[in-house]
Amino acid sequence: MTSPAGSQTAAPSLEQQLNDLLLGRTDVPVAAAESCTGGMIGHRITTIPGCSDYFLGSLVTYANSAKMSLLGVPAAVLASVGAVSEECARAMAEGARRAYGATIAVSTTGIAGPTGATARKPVGLVYIALADPSTTVVEEHRFTGDRLTVIDAATERALELLVAAVERQLSELSSQAQPSGG
After folding, report:
1. Mean pLDDT over residues 76-80, rounded?
2. I need a surface site. Which of 92, 131, 138, 149 has the fewest CB within 10 A?
């Protein structure tokens, strides 16, 4: 978009886009489960007034014990593939959906650095999952930069996934509400 003076105006932030989609609605509640982002997803969503209409909360489950007790991540997953894995991200998103009674939930788990890396799991490796009523998808990312840069990048991608999932859900709800022709 260009303003009348010719300067560029920034696109709305992802948290503002989420609010634009859901403000005043309670039929598509969303939630998050965060490990490596440490609450940043919840923080960004709650900077927008009115988010209490649709945002149920975010569980920061940094410790494996919290992942198990609060989200139901199986101990076997943590023992076999670890917290930084596709399986753990999936279980976290599905667990957040269950725990909050949300329609859609997003989760993050990864290694923000600068410590904690291994040869198989480098700094910047992040799994982001999104669970909705029909499926759970998991993305693997390898973000570069320092700890805060990794956290910011993971948060941004998680919010992108959340906005896209809300758009799909609202489209489905809209098509279900349309009377069939005949």
Report:
1. 98
2. 149
